[in-house]
Design goal:
single chain, alpha/beta, Rossmann fold, eight-stranded mixed sheet, 13 strands, disordered N terminus
Length: 354
């Protein structure tokens, strides 16, 4: 279904074409629907970042789809002047996978929260990632259930006191980046809602990747979990607490880049003082490595959002995209005359008449 009253194929607000694609502005990607999140919600900044980024991708709105599940983040498709679907709880990766396989010409984006994606939708998420279906997943992580008024979520910290855990949560939380890497996702990244430029750059990298891409976005819920990420994302704290991952460069951070990351004897990532170990000892970030083990170690560097935390692209590894593999397989189906025939393939094994 369409999600706005405007037809994205016939907007009058088009600029000059570039490479056959009409140039657009943020206004072209913004629907006429009233944006309805709580005042101050981090979702606003994520929406703005996406709307400002889309004109730079050189894509058509009529070939762009946003699919969501249930939750605060799931309102996202209504606010994009594209095609879209507000689907059912946790099933957006499955619905998006079907669309991406049936229509490989489309740009398919998935938007959901930590509850939607990692609780009821966890199974759909990991299988979309391992299959490497060409969908771009934006996972808004605010460590709480916002739409249903503040229950603890799959990413809430142990001891979290909420309406559903009055004595504190006993659950060990998921680390979304670790989960995605464990599923061997070919592209995994993290950004946060307080840095629009970083969000735009990260989302653009995900879009350019051929295959499944997951971007975790630290997002503030100022009503039910306000300030959950302040100790790392507030501007005054970023130099000391955010570790900027840059491919091909030693991993360093700090106001004077005095801290770095090395691998210990067990293969774990640890933080060191550069002056003590020397720059030559630092881990050089390689997002393209076929083995996700080092990226996984980096994802475990911070066990909570009060510790120095990596941001950026953890993994961007090229492997066969699912739709291309599926189409190649179907092309091998032949009938008795050697002509392409999918029906012959489907009936090639024993069948029964009932």
């Amino acid at each position: 279904m369409t999600n706005t009253t405007q037809n994205p194929a016939t907007s009058n607000n088009l600029l000059a074409e570039k490479d056959g694609v009409p140039a657009t502005t943020k206004a072209d990607w913004s629907s006429d629907q009233e944006v309805r999140w709580c005042p101050g919600c981090g979702d606003y900044s994520i929406l703005t970042a996406v709307q400002m980024m889309m004109p730079d991708l050189g894509v058509r709105r009529e070939n762009t789809v946003f699919i969501s599940g249930i939750g605060c983040a799931a309102r996202f498709p209504y606010y994009m002047n594209t095609y879209g679907m507000h689907s059912i709880h946790g099933r957006s990766p499955a619905i998006a996978s079907g669309l991406a396989i049936a229509r490989p010409d489309l740009d398919v984006w998935v938007v959901g929260g930590d509850g939607d994606m990692l609780s009821i939708g966890g199974n759909h998420l990991i299988h979309a990632l391992r299959r490497n279906v060409n969908i771009k997943i934006l996972l808004f992580n605010n460590q709480i259930y916002g739409l249903t008024k503040g229950q603890y979520s799959p990413t809430s910290e142990p001891g979290k006191v909420t309406k559903s855990s009055p004595f504190g949560s006993l659950d060990h939380p998921f680390n979304p980046v670790s989960l995605a890497l464990g599923a061997e996702a070919s592209f995994v990244a993290r950004t946060h809602d307080m840095d629009r430029k970083h969000m735009q750059a990260t989302f653009a990298r995900a879009h350019a990747h051929d295959g499944a891409a997951l971007v975790e976005v630290f997002q503030n819920c100022n009503v039910f979990n306000d300030g959950a990420f302040d100790k790392i994302t507030k501007k005054a704290n970023r130099d000391a607490m955010l570790i900027d991952l840059r491919h091909g460069e030693p991993i360093r951070f700090g106001a004077d880049r005095e801290h770095g990351v090395v691998l210990d004897a067990a293969g774990g990532a640890v933080i060191v003082n550069v002056a003590e170990v020397g720059e030559a000892a630092l881990l050089v970030h390689d997002e393209t490595h076929p083995d996700p083990a080092v990226a996984f170690a980096l994802s475990r560097l911070a066990s909570n959002p009060e510790m120095p935390t990596p941001m950026g692209v953890f993994r961007a590894f090229d492997r066969e995209e699912y739709t291309a593999a599926s189409e190649a397989q179907m092309a091998t189906a032949k009938d008795t005359d050697g002509e392409p025939d999918l029906r012959s393939l489907l009936h090639s094994l024993p069948t029964w008449d009932v």
